[in-house]
Amino acid sequence: MDCTVSWLGNTGMAFSAETGSGHLLNMDGAPEAGGRNLAPRPMELLLAGAGGCSAFDVVLILQKARQAVSGCEVKVKAERASEDPKVFTKIDLHFTVTGKDLDQAKVDRAVKLSHDKYCSATAMLSKTAELTYSIEVRSE
Length: 140
Hints:
Blueprint: E1 3-7, E2 15-19, E3 24-27, H1 42-64, E4 68-80, E5 88-100, H2 104-118, H3 120-125, E6 130-139
Parallel strand pairs: 5-6
Antiparallel strand pairs: 1-2, 2-3, 4-5
């Protein structure tokens, strides 16, 4: 896996990244750090990646369990250290899983498997942060 990140020049603190799979994304800093607030911060992308990785696992596990899942939303909230490097110290993931006749135990199991076994992103972040999660199941 690889990625190339390029500074966009004298326009502030904006960067462009091209992933190994050929996708582009932009990042920018906060105005107080010289950015122009035109794109997500790099640390926001880490949280988005963790939420996406875990949601991917949950949906895949539920589909394999023949659950009629139609939606999966993860709200990720984090706290950071006050001193540099300002690593994440606490991360909470709140899963809202929607579907028809979902089995609560199977949803719980899917989230637990993602958290304990499959999600590479949260596994890495758990080295510096306390990770917690909660689950809400909604019927269609």
